[in-house]
Sequence to fold (473 residues):
Amino acid sequence: MSTSPLALAVILACQLMVVLDGTVTYAALPKLRADLGLARADLSWVQNAYMLTFGGFMLLGARTGDILGHRRVFLAASAAFVLASSAGGLTQSIQGLLVARGLQGIAAAFAAPSALALLMLLFPEGVARVRAISLYTAVSGGGSAAGLVLGGILTDVGSWRWVLFINVPIGALLLMLGPRCLPEAPRNGGHFDVMGALTITLGTSLLVYGLVRCVPDGAEHPGVVAPLIAAGLLLTAFVHIEKRARQPITPLSLFVNAQRLGAYAGRMLLIGGMLGTFFFLIQYVQEVLKFSAFRAGLAFLPLSVTQFLMVMVGVPRLMPRLGGKGLLTGGLLIAASGMVCLSRVSADTEFFADLALPIVMLGIGTGAALVPLTTAGIAGVAPRDAGAASGLINATHYIGGAMGTAVVVFVVDLTLGRAALARGSTGSTLELKAKTELTHALSVSAATSAAFFVLALLIVLVTMRRPRSLPAE
Fold:
């Protein structure tokens, strides 16, 4: 085997590993909740600890690769990812698990940008690079959906800990093959914007924490008010730091262009809505429909397959005909329609009759929307800011996923409290009550996500009005 195919395989394996970990724990949530004794709202932090640190440190990770060399950073971050995964699988407490998930996210934030930079170095511009980037996009787009399937299989065959231990052999293989086949990347001088990375990560984390705790603790509780105020101060400080930094991780000029700003906001709403609903959907099919974790994972196979096919086959054929804006509009409409169908769920819902079609619609819609959102997010960016713009796309993806999940959990908790008061609590068993509440949670989360998608569509229509603002090639 020549060096390039093996190096490409190593890069794609790393990207798949870090993307999978954003969703691979979803199917394990019911067993993890029972094992560690968690409240349902607090369970969202198993995801958010990873998503927030991944997104928050992404730009610093990209800058570190530029300064220290992407090959060196790739290998060091992969080793850290393996160690954090091992610690998470061995932990006996929720605190230990959340720390491990946060460390996984930080390691992923340094590994992922270097993986993409090495791919660009490995394949010069031309047909080979286009093919490599297509594979990279397919892995990135389909990896989240595939994580839902794999998580169910691993949880059912072994335990929830296996969804973390699976990273150990993958990472070990990367560390064995990487030094042999990955090219040396040139180093560039520069400065680390550590304060920028810390303020954006801590600010978004405290914002998410305040939203998650708002309903159970009360909006006026000091444990809610203080984090929200601190989040506002930290995010304000982040803007001031980026204005004055010699080499900011997020050049504020990227937000001046309305098209790019719309693409970032649209991506946050799309990913936030998807992951927020998946958080409840994976629990619904296990606790209400009584699917095993294995069957629950397989339930998302239509999503994974349709999303992959849309990215690899549908988008290349439809983009020249519809243009980026047309494809994005159609994708968001299909995804929103799928969420509306999903919001009609009840305790009598059957998977194949009532859930399969909405899941397929979500795969088609999100697959169609992600590529033009990516294209719009880097359109018109100066070459010196290309790396920052690419990193910002990934940052909005993961931070949007965490914040969207927090908002959806907030809305669900708020409506669950009102629904419980309307129903009363007499004459219901604990099991029936749990099923009723989870069914209500899925219905509300899907309706909330549909509203997210409609808002994303409105933003797209307003910010991408010019016909040539989204290139079709």
User: Anything to note?
Assistant: The first helix runs from residue 3 to 20. The two ends are 33 Å apart (CA to CA).
